[in-house]
Write a structure and sequence with these properties.
It contains six helices and no strands. By secondary structure, the protein is an all-alpha fold. It has one domain: Tetratricopeptide repeat domain (Serine Threonine Protein Phosphatase 5, Tetratricopeptide repeat).
Amino acid sequence: MRRAMSAISFVMVAAATMFAATVGSLRALEQSQQQGQGQQGQSQQPPPQTGAPPASNPPAKQGQPKAPSDADDPHKYDAFNAEKDIEVGTFYLHKGDIDAAIPRFEEAASLRPTYGKPRLLLAEAYEKKKDLDMALKYYKEYLKVYPNAPDAKKVQKKIEKLEGK
């Protein structure tokens, strides 16, 4: 029974590691494609064929500002990858690897700037790590991003406790 549980734990860690590597590879590919878009005039290679018609940007009407493209914003809103980062970070947090969880939650917060969940998880991770200043920072950010949170009173009490009030 113990060996089976150990094997299951190993498989779960291996799956999470493979998932993390895949997400990292996809992000690197996306970044290199975005950088390639910024250097279109310098490259001799044609863009890869995807089977989809090329996206065309209609010219801006006179007097209207040009809409920002995805290439202009390296940290665009990305709900899907933010959720995946939260899942992987939560896995690491439950396994006790706080140092591996924190960067995942930070990335999720940058991918969804108005999402409170990664900030709450960051606060809890830093609190477990005994870095109370960072925990306080993220508890405050959580309430700033999500002021009507169902657990706002509980979080406010944690803030007061950490501030020593």
